[in-house]
Batch of 3 targets.
Target 1
Amino acid sequence: MLDALGGQSNINTLDACITRLRVGVHNKGNVNKAQLQSLGASGVLEVGNGVQAIFGPTSDTLKNQILTILDGKTNQEATETAVTEETNKKTAVADKATVSLTAPLSGEVVSLEEVPDDVFSQKMMGDGVAIKPSGGKVVSPADGEIVSVFPAKHAITLRTDEGAELLIHMGLETVNLNGEPFAINVSPEDNIRKGDPLAQINMELLSEKGYNTITPIIVMNGDQFTVNHETQQSSVVAGEGVLVDESIS
């Protein structure tokens, strides 16, 4: 991993969110994008004086392991193992034809291509839809289990009973707010039912701070599920009706 980033001396800053590893580097030319993708990154973006490698929910784990290596407390093998385990992880899928997702928020439904963030608009994390929310209530779109709540509280991942792995990413770049606008009602391994409250977003605070509130809902195991956009609605109410159907591949 460190070799792909140009070596330890090339790293200036390091951070992560639930979608990507954010690395400030001294020389972007020393970063090997192809090697990062061979290690499991679904995409690599150049942003400012750094790169963003799209490793999904494992990004924060990778950040912490790289920081440990930089501090001289361990070797690189643990980081490579984490990447391999995440890349090879597969989820069992129930024998059902489709999964219907209820809207997790109220608002206008738009395509991912309209999300002003390349990670989502180019579907590096997977296919899905996005909602321009009209309110801050966030509910579960399906029966299942909470997988993770990111420490900054801006993103929740869950697994439906059928095996679909979903990401609800509340707003864009909201990781920078360290959880301030978000009240979370669930914890990892909680069992959830469709319509159960997951979170409350302080929409006024997000607007005051100039953050885009658009919320992508992503199917992260797209090798097993296909989003049926023909069933996509244009306007939805949280916990009511069908947002979109997913077909098992």
Target 2
Amino acid sequence: MPVIRILIASIFITASVAQAQPSLQIGPVGNAMMISPTMPGTTLFQDNLDGTFDWEGSMMMVGMWQAQWDLLIDTDPGVSGVFAITNTSGMQQSFVFNVATPVSVSVPAGAQFNSSSALTLADANFNGTALLAAPTGSSVFAGLIDGAVESTLYNDPFSLLVGAVGGTAVNAAGDAGTTSRNLVGTLGITHSIVLSPGDSATANSTFFVVPEPTSAALMLGAGMVLIRRRKKTGVKR
């Protein structure tokens, strides 16, 4: 039956999208590294077979920076986890950490979204001072829908300071609302920070969108209605 063929095609497409893998971009602005789950640096990448992935790993450039991540990625759709970076150079640097995942559902504009981020800054070189700041004209956190910014936290001129030897400073923020655009391809988070030399920053962040019923589920419901109608009316093909 045509209805059954459409249902099978829809379910196949949804499953194919869910099997696509997320990606990372880490490093200094202008020289960040693109990382896939199969590249060196990933210590764990696990497909949980329910549309979610666990991704842990680390990466470094000797004398420049080192980073670690521990992420839970949901294609249905959301991203959450911890990212840490240490500026091992002798100069202030601007860093980016981007994570993006293909989504298994299309979500129309007007859906609910939630974003949150908790930042920790540490005086890792024990010189008594540390700085984390938003880049000029930008934000430390951005929640992305199909590569476009949907939600921001810690907007310029935000900064976090430590003024004690070996000290730390923390800050938490959140945002919620309705999406301004359709979600059809990818959902992600971008962190952009200016970090003082020798110091470490950690972000524990989340961004997710509450989906409408999937198109496959809607089509399944419509298909069942058509089948019942055919049984009642005796329509045959």
Target 3
Amino acid sequence: MFFPKINIFFPDCRHRATGLPGVFGTMLQIMRFNGKTALVTGGGRRLGKEIALSLARQGADIILHFFQSRQEADDTSEEIRMLGRKCRISSHNLSDADFTEKWFGNLIGENGCPDILINSASSYYEDTYTNMRVERLQESMNLHVYSPLVMIRMMYEVGRGGSVVNLLDTRVADRDPFHASYHLGKRGLSSITRDLAAEFAPVLRINAVAPGIILPPDGQGEEWIERLKSTNPLLERGTALDVSDAVLFLAEARFTTGQIIFVDGGRHLKGNAYEL
């Protein structure tokens, strides 16, 4: 019996190598988020950018939030449009939480309620418990806790259903004495992930991803990665794509809520902060 030869293309493999799906692979690719709209806060740069692009590659239209990184947001939105997806950019200071409700309400009025919310906007403050200022702590709590809470609550009130993925830090399972305001903000975001997953079910699914050694902080180079990658059991660094893979999984995982996925090479198992 004669069996014809069939060539099967795997677009995800090609995407990992080049950043774009293969021409033939595209024909077989299943768009996991076709017809969905995703709001990605802090989506113009770093992990937010990779998450926004990954969602767009899988069929989602994107609302790209930024605050100060206008040029990076413009560049990322152009990349998204080149993938054939719609992209709108919107600026707002999420640390000014009093105006978040108005800003998010305007987005809903103009675009409809997003199907997916990715809370990735963050500021990596350097301070300690001995020199922390109340203004800096309030700024961190507004950015990392209160503004995400406002947006999640408004999605729930609309009642359409949807998925939320919050970006944490592997050190929510540990301590970070050198970035105290940031750490308390991420700890707060971790807490509301679980609390709101219970409070707003079954309308919303709310989960989180906690990255480890992925990108060096602004102002640091690759030597920072090389110095710290040995602190996780896998003795490796992660990539932005590793994080976006976890985010996309949670965004579509219909029977998963209140979960935190640590994308950190097992670092959260060791129990000591990076810099101690």
